[in-house]
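Example record used in the benchmark description.
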Amino acid sequence: MGSRKSPAKKKVLSKALKQNRRIPIFVIAKTGRKVSRNTKSRNWRFKKLKVKVD
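Model output (structure tokens):
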């Protein structure tokens, strides 16, 4: 991540980065495949974040 960002903006972007992961395998196994994918997953090219922190 670039260095010319405010700490608040870095925090927002890092949270979005952490949320954009696949769900763990044990969750799929534990729920019997009822939960199999992350519905909040986001593609970096098509779905842009609306970050207004300066």
